[in-house]
TrEMBL record:
This is Rhodanese-related sulfurtransferase. SUPFAM superfamilies: Rhodanese/Cell cycle control phosphatase. GO terms for molecular function: transferase activity. It holds the Pfam family Rhodanese.
Length: 182
């Protein structure tokens, strides 16, 4: 199923799978999905969510989600494109947004770890600086990218698939891992 196969009758699990930024878009546009009182289940359809949320138009909500997905795609860059930029000697700052423990365990050689000091320096620096942010799997980095862009750093991109995709597509010497949470 691709995003155009989605409908108001699609379960939220399918929408979340095909539109990774859907939860963020639902929360920012409709205040849905961000907390217990406005959450939804995986089996609930978009139409059901719209109906119990005050009779919203599910077709309009789906259109909003698809537009938000296109916006997210425009903020992404592939690991291969990042490698090509680095190999070409382009001035691009690669920033790791994972935890310090993850960064110290496995990282992209050219990457810097995101600290408050680095962030403040970037926000006070050249707004035309090319920046690539990455996380583990590419699931949260769009939030960081949006935040950077919202602070005037319009040439900030999110690496699709995170360091895991980098390991699979660019540099297999970068160890893959998975997080196990209690």
């Amino acid at each position: 199923m691709n995003p155009t196969d989605l409908s108001p009758e699609s379960p939220m699990s399918a929408i979340m799978e095909k539109l990774p930024g859907a939860r963020r878009a639902l929360f920012s546009h409709y205040h849905l999905g961000g907390c217990q009182s406005c959450g939804f289940s995986d089996s609930e359809t978009l139409a059901e969510l719209a109906a119990r949320s005050g009779g919203m138009d599910p077709a309009e909500m789906l259109a909003q989600l698809l537009a938000a997905d296109l916006h997210d795609q425009a903020m992404q860059i592939s690991p291969e494109e990042v490698r090509a930029q680095l190999d070409a000697g382009e001035s691009v700052l690669v920033i790791d947004t994972r935890t310090r423990e993850e960064f110290e365990a496995v990282r992209i050689e050219e990457a810097e770890f995101m600290t408050q000091e680095l962030q403040q320096a970037l926000f006070a620096g050249d707004p035309e600086k090319s920046i690539v942010l990455y996380d583990h799997l590419g699931r949260h980095v769009l939030d960081h990218c949006s935040w950077f862009r919202g602070h005037g750093l319009k040439k900030t991109f999110a690496m699709a698939g995170g360091i895991d995709a980098w390991s699979q597509k660019v540099d297999p010497s970068v160890r893959r891992y998975r997080l196990e949470l209690d």
